[in-house]
Design a protein that fits this description.
The protein is mostly helical. It has one domain (2-76). It is built from three helices and no strands. The chain has helices at 2-27, 36-56, 63-76. It is rod-shaped, with a radius of gyration of 27 Å. The chain starts with a helix and ends with a helix. The relative contact order is 0.08. Keywords: Membrane, Transmembrane, Transmembrane helix. The chain crosses the membrane at residues 39-55.
Length: 80
Amino acid sequence: MTRLLRLDASIRRDVDGVESRAGNAGDRAMMTLLTINRVYYLIGFVVMLLVVMTLRGSRQPQTFYHGTVLVSVRWDLPVR
């Protein structure tokens, strides 16, 4: 029984130590360079650039069709 009490006290000490360290980390503002919204906008920009490049290339007759498909994909999947 005393062994269990010592183990319980040891676990509580460890948990209290983790909580106090976590509290100190929470005071600082978390800085992220790349958020998920910025990733979505970056992907959207790359797709629209691809659309423009596809529509401008007139060597193949299917480029207009491919560009319209990419535009429709962009309109069907709005970024919020």
